Give the backbone structure.
Amino acid sequence: MKKLFLLPALFLLSSSLFAENIVIEPKVDERTELMSIVFRLAGAEPYSMRQFVQSYSADIDKYFSPCTNHKIISFTQQVANELDAMKFAIYTEISADTIRFIKDAENDWVSQHWKVNSAEAKRYLELLNDFYRESNFHSFFEQHSQLYSVAEKRFADRLKAVDLDWFENFHGELPRGKFICIISLVNGGFSYGPSITHTDGSKDIYSVMGTWRTDKKGLPLYPDEIVPTFIHEYNHSFCNPLINQFYLQLRKKAKQFYRPVADAMRTTGWNNERVMLDEILVRACVIKYMEKNDASNVKERVAFEQARGFLWIDRLAASLDTYLANRDKYPTLRDYMPEIVKLQNSLSFGKVQEEVGRGWPVIVSTSVRNNDRNVDPNLTQIVFTFDRPMASPTMGLSYCSERMGNKIIPFITGREWNEDKKELIVKVELKPDTKYSISLWGWIFKGQDELPVNGIHYLDFKTRTRYTQVADSTAGKQ
């Protein structure tokens, strides 16, 4: 039996059964909005990206402009790489205009999630309280209650068909605690799956969902593909502890698989092989959820994950069929983990890489040569040519920040496809004597057969010192 989807805050689970007749109310949470906005003001990605409700972001910039020099902003810039904003948020509570660590989880937060020291964690909390009061953040939050209500209702409507029984049926066990769903309007295309372990041993697991689509009125919109992401984030609370338990047995081979795809991994914050292991297991579980619930695009999903660097996910997903067919021998996914260890450690990166991507689209040329150091700054467009008609995405070009150095991305004024959909025309404005870099995220660019381009493709170049002399204002335009 399928239940309605998940929950806001007060949904308790027994150790073996979901509650019946659940009323689901995913919520926009003041704690996560506060942290997301502070990180946005500090210029931290992804909170400073443009993949969210534009009117809301404009309100943020206007309302909090007097606070941009607050000490919390500079402190956040210093610790952004060490502090997980969403984890910090869920370890706090707001009461009587004061933000506190949740008492029975504070030690867990400081020891597990703050990579510097407890004194800095407490100092951050002090500054956050000062910012919260000085900015009158609660007033801003209340002013946007109508927008939040729209997001909550639309998210709830999208998730009515989620099969919650799947979690117990697949994993064979459930945490003793709460499932909590938070919607964030500042997180763009990024979602998170944190959890809290309390002193009584109970564990609350979260799905913090970003917002990256809007309707014609600029209001939050949650497409069908939100469901796999929703399932993905909860799976982290099941899968990450398993990877942690077996990590020493997985590490050596995982390093071999991570190193060649590190650029692609780092674009979304997967900065080491341990995170890669968490992600590949979670994503294989999502594939099993999609198969169980008759999703039509499982094949494309597998190819998408491989293009992002999870090269052996097809083998892992196939192995999970063995797990599902032998539940008397493997009551839980934890019981099956030794077989996953054996599978990974039996693989050769070279052989797997050779097999992945056969028949996928490729970029056959670019109008600007890679590493060209004499590009005319009059140039107004760069053309990427593919070997076949594409499905015409207009996104997927990035700053490639992990390898930028002193390069910048060209100012992009437009993007369009030619008539046969084989050429992506990127319209740009360039400056003289400037190093530029563009990365094309292959997994976003799919052929009309839904197969993606493999990996990340880089275009680095430098413009010459002076503009070409032209006879009139239109010369040199392409």
Observations:
- The longest strand covers residues 456-463.
- Residues 1-23, 400-405, 470-478 have pLDDT under 50 and may be disordered.
- Residues 13 and 226 are 24 Å apart (CA to CA).
- The two ends are 60 Å apart (CA to CA).
